[in-house]
Amino acid sequence: MQFIQVNKDWGAEPNAPQPRIIVDRQHSKLVLRFFLYPFIYDDVKEGTLAELGFQNCYLYSLGSVNDEEFYRGLCWFSTTGIKW
Fold it and tell me: Per its UniProt entry, which superkingdom is the organism in (predicted)?
């Protein structure tokens, strides 16, 4: 399994990202919309929405894993070596 960090110069709003999943069956695509974190990135204004698209996605999970659960090993990927 290989992980690629896609958020090198942006981040999701940590307190209220309000994620929304859109399933685009016509294009076999899943879209995740969420608010960006405006307080540490100069080019992000409050209320800015971002989208991540996943082509041919057949399974997804949207949960509320936090850093405590991650470090306690309660996240699916806690033991894979990825960083929080």
Answer: Bacteria
Q: Which band of pLDDT confidence, cut at 50, 70 and 90, is reported for residue 21?
A: very high
β-pairing, 49-55 vs 20-24, is unpaired
pLDDT at 6: 84
Q: What's 76's DSSP letter?
A: T
Stated as kind and residue range, the H or E segment containing 29 is strand 29-35
| Global confidence as pTM | 0.77
Helix, strand and coil content of the chain, in percent to the nearest 5, comes to 10, 25, 65
